[in-house]
Amino acid sequence: MTQDKHLYIFKKYLPENSVNYCYDLWALHKFSFKVTPPRQSKFGDYCYRKDKGHQITVNSNLNPYSFLITYIHEVAHLVTYKQYGNKKDPHGKEWKQNFLKTFLPVLSNEVLPPDLLEVLTAYLQNPSASTQGYTPLVRILQTYDLQTDEVPLTSLKEGDQFIIRGQTFVKGLLRRTRYLCTDAKTSKRYVISATALVKKL
């Protein structure tokens, strides 16, 4: 991918005032970067292969702020790998320090809206392996998603029916951060994240 192509991609997916910084990170570390179709299991990915070098991917369906967070999350993995190889935990204190350090240049109200800046600043003090593990951040980021007919599972009442990934469920009781839900067809029970986006029936 050419430099012009990278700049075009960053302008398309990132908040405007973060584009140059994110481009500079790519130029500095020289990794292969790809925007991928949506993946259920993850928002982004970093890997290193001897034959292909450093590679970072980010899902195409993320809003600009989620895209920015995911991108820098993965760059922090790259930085940590360069420093320590595989000797440290993937989301250990070294990665957490690099995540915060790498994010600081765009952790400002010139890039982020005030409500997101406040929550994200708190999250970055001790970031989890995924933003999905920090409910306040999930909820703020969802407000910046494109408007759809999907709503957070938390907004439904117990007993309400909803659809997620093509399956119909009945909402049950909350168990910590997940709801115990029943498949409407099979009556099997599943735990579903409280912050999952679903279509209410």
UniProtKB/TrEMBL annotation:
Question: Which residue range or ranges hold the SprT-like domain?
Answer: 30-97
GO term, biological process aspect, one: response to stress
Which organism's genome codes for this protein? Pseudarcicella hirudinis
- Specify the protein name: SprT-like family protein
Pfam families for the chain: SprT-like
